[in-house]
Specification:
One of its GO terms (molecular function) is sarcosine oxidase activity. InterPro entries: SoxD, SoxD_sf. This is Sarcosine oxidase subunit delta. It comes from Thalassorhabdomicrobium marinisediminis. 10% of the residues lie in helices and 38% in strands. By secondary structure, it is mainly beta. The chain has one domain: Folate-binding superfamily (Folate-binding fold, 2-Layer Sandwich). The strands form two sheets. Strands 3-4-5-6 form a four-stranded antiparallel sheet, with no helix packed on it. Strands 1-2 form a two-stranded antiparallel ribbon. A hairpin with a 5-residue loop joins strand 5 and strand 6. The chain is globular and about 40 Å long. The two termini are 25 Å apart. The structure holds zinc ion.
């Protein structure tokens, strides 16, 4: 699989570190209740179709990117830069 780094162009996926689903960017506020933190930490969808994942271009430019891809067709639909480093 090749990933389209917005800074470097198409690269082999082995140059990237996979962080996980992009829902981790929706972190609750520190004062959020236990249910919000439980949902954030433990509940994940496993969608068939279009997903958004976080990848770190470890062997390249060092950018964090959000890749949109289809889990049914394995098509990579695009990628965009993410500001900051995901926790
Ligand atoms: Zn890059």
């Amino acid at each position: 699989m090749r990933l389209p780094c917005p800074l470097c162009g198409d690269r082999d996926r082995r140059e990237f570190y996979y962080q996980g689903a992009a829902v981790t960017l929706n972190r609750p506020a520190p004062e959020a209740d236990a249910d919000a933190w439980d949902a954030y930490l433990h509940l994940r969808d496993n969608p068939a179709g279009e997903t958004r994942d976080l990848w770190y271009h470890e062997a390249g430019c060092g950018a964090w990117i959000m890749v949109t891809r289809n889990t049914l067709t394995h098509e990579v639909l695009g990628a965009e830069l993410i500001e900051g480093v995901p926790a």
